[in-house]
Amino acid sequence: MTQNPYARFETFDLGLIPVTYTAAGLGAAKYTPGVLYLARLDDGGAGGALNGFISCLWSKGSGTVGTVFFGAYAATGTATAGTLYLLGGTANVGGVATGNIRTAMLNAQGTAVNFQSPGPGNPQGSIYGAILVATDSGTNHVDVATSTAFAVAGTNANNSDLTGNGGFPRCVSSGTTQTVLPATVAMSGVAATTLLPWFAVD
C-alpha cells in the first residue's frame, strides 16, 4: 500500500520501503562524525510550492547532546564531473525533541530558502537531502530513519535511476572531518554508501 506523499520531494516512499529507526537512539553510532551523507530526493508528485523545509524521523539519542545539521543540495553537471551546491541548511538540531521533525532551511544570507522545482528529465535538476553529524558523544547516538536494504538493492539499476535525475547516484558520502555543511561538494570526490536516510523537502 503506497502513501500519498505530503512533500514535493522524498528520498523514498515510506509506505513502500521498510526503515530502521529507534526513538531511544542507537547504542553505536550510525553516522560517522565529520562525514556528510547525501540522499537523492525524487519527485513524489505532491503539488504545491517548495517552502524551504526539510523533514525526517529523528532521534537525538541520550546523554551528551550532539551537533547535527540537515540541508539540501542541487546537483549540476554530471554524476561523475558535476558539483553539488548547498541550497540551504538548518541550525543545529542536536537538541530538538525526538520525533518526526520539519525544520526550516536558511541560505547563506540567513534568509528562508526559496528554490524552484527542477524540470522533468533535467540532468542538472537533482536535489539531495543531507545530514552532517559534527559531534555525537551521547550514551545513545543520534538516529534518522534509514533504509540500508533499499540502498544496497539500489547499488546497480536503482542507484543510477533512469527515471530522470540525470543518473545521479541515490546515496553518497563526502569528507571526513567536516563541522559545517560545505558550500560545494565535487561529485568526483564522493564515495558510495549503503546508508540511505529518509528525507522529505517541501
Number of helices: 1
Strand content: 25-35%
Distance between the termini: 23 Å
Which regions contain 5 or more consecutive residues with pLDDT less than 50? 117-124, 160-164
Shape verdict: globular
The tally of domains stands at 1
Element-by-element helix/strand order: EEEEEEEEHEEEE
Q: What value does the average pLDDT take?
A: 84
Taking Cα atoms only, what radius of gyration do you get, to the nearest Å? 16 Å
Which structural category fits the helices and strands?
mainly beta
Q: What's the number of extended β-strand segments?
A: 12
Largest sheet: 12 strands, antiparallel
Portion of residues in helices?
under 10%
Structure overview:
Strands 1, 2, 3, 4, 5, 6, 7, 8, 9, 10, 11 and 12 form a 12-stranded antiparallel sheet that branches. 3% of the residues lie in helices and 31% in strands. The chain is globular, with a radius of gyration of 16 Å. 38% of the residues are buried. It has 202 residues and is mainly β. The chain has one domain (9-201). The two termini are 23 Å apart. The chain has one helix at residues 148-153; strands spanning 9-10, 36-43, 53-59, 67-76, 83-89, 99-104, 127-135, 143-144, 171-174, 184-186, 191-192, 200-201. Strand 4 and strand 5 form a beta hairpin.
